Amino acid sequence: MLVNRIRDFVRRHPALRKTVRSVRGELPRGLGGIESSRRVRERRFELALPLREDDVVAGPEVLSFAVPGGLWAPRKLEREGLAGFEPETLACFLAALDHAGSGAVLDIGANVGVYGLLAAARGTRPVHAFEPTPRVAAAARELATANGLPVEVVECALGDRIGRASFTLSSTSDASNSLASGFRPSVGRIEVRVDTLSHWCERTGAVPAVVKIDTETTEPEVIAGGIKALRAFRPWILCEVLPGRGVEKRLMRLLRPLDYGWYQLGDEVPSPARRVIDGRISEADQRMWLFAPEPPSDAFWSDTRAWRRALETCGPTSVLRA
Known about the structure:
Blueprint: H1 2-12, H2 14-22, E1 42-48, E2 62-68, H3 72-80, H4 87-99, E3 104-108, H5 114-121, E4 127-130, H6 134-146, E5 151-154, E6 157-159, E7 163-170, E8 186-196, H7 197-204, E9 208-213, H8 219-224, H9 227-233, E10 236-240, H10 247-255, E11 261-264, E12 273-274, E13 288-292, H11 298-312, H12 317-320
Parallel strand pairs: 3-4, 3-9, 4-5, 6-8, 9-10
Antiparallel strand pairs: 1-2, 7-8, 10-13, 11-12, 11-13
């Protein structure tokens, strides 16, 4: 039968099999689809937030999630909590909030806004989350509103030019959507608004103090479009560096004239300073780097360790309720 041949073909090709798994909710059952009764249409759970041992409780202890069931980040958060969601990077991010000068937090490539929500829950800085995918941006906006957190969700991509651009929707995960054509297998493209970091800061009057960039291989374009702002305000930057995509040399070429240091984030604290940016020296699930405008102090790394310990207690809701 034709259906059996199609299923056998899918099984023999790992890349295609992975793509099919990501869209099983839209396929007929005979081709490996999921029955409508088994689809998660809405994901509801509470996410425990970190609190250091000596801190006075400030802000919420948990965030309430009620989001579309197919979104990648909430699915991972429900299963693993913040303890399993980039804890090395989150700990350094929270330490940067403690040590950076005055100014705003910019979560660029926010997805549902985990970093921005955490910054708003554990600090008083203005928070701006940039997410160009409409349905994901809507979820981020609803999460901020439902939890009473002042996060501005900007439905826009940041790059090295101003205007409109074709944005690829990944068939792998909504966390892999990108301005980079061909980065992942796609299910389509949409047109999105694009701005540069420097132009946005100039237009809004925002002063960036801590910036997180995770834009699926277009991080150099974000940096290139923000050179003026980085030179003027010298924010702390946490940036994803995916290997084999040609981003490392471009990042070094852009950051060297600004006298930024780069530190590979991982289990080791203090994170090691590197002479070069090389995504291949990170573990498979540790692709984030700290780009620091000055050498991090001992107090910075001490706070990073303290936040890491706090994050270890933020497991999944099933563990919390056991």
